[in-house]
């Protein structure tokens, strides 16, 4: 059993930064992929960034160049550094993990997935609110 606990959410102004953390506890060995998702009420959950156990990353296009996903394997913690936040990025942010990990490959480059179906383990979320 693995527990994922997010933290670091809060309220910021347009253009400011936040760093989210996700602490994994329990049977963590064997987790191959971890990711951040976000969800606005009434909308589908959106994959934001993912990382695999080799350090390969994947980002949804709107956050490329502004968000950075990273992991500390010693602390079993996943991070999401979010810079230049926008009001439309107000959402509940969720941490997700999976033991198997599905890769998506194109032109010889493989990346961890950003689809909900790629992840079996989920945290309860942390709210991020960006005001204009």
Task: Produce a short descriptive summary.
By secondary structure, this protein is an all-beta fold. It has no helices and 13 strands. The N and C termini lie far apart (40 Å).
Order of helices and strands: EEEEEEEEEEEEE
- Approximately how much beta-strand content do the residues carry? over 45%
Form type: globular
Structural class: mainly beta
| CA-based gyration radius | 14 Å
Mean pLDDT: 95
Largest sheet: 7 strands, mixed
Assembly context of the chains: single chain
Total beta-strand segments: 13
Helical amount among residues, as a percent range? Answer: under 10%
Q: Whole-Å distance between the termini?
A: 40 Å
Individual helix count: 0
| Low-pLDDT sequence parts | none
How would you describe this structure to a colleague?
The structure is a single chain. This protein is mainly β and 132 residues long. 0% of the residues lie in helices and 55% in strands. The protein contains no helices and 13 strands. The protein has strands at 2-7, 10-13, 18-26, 33-39, 46-52, 57-59, 67-72, 77-82, 91-98, 103-106, 109-112, 121-122, 126-131. Strands 2, 4, 5, 6, 9, 12 and 13 form a seven-stranded mixed beta sheet that branches. Strand 4 and strand 5 (46-52) form a beta hairpin.
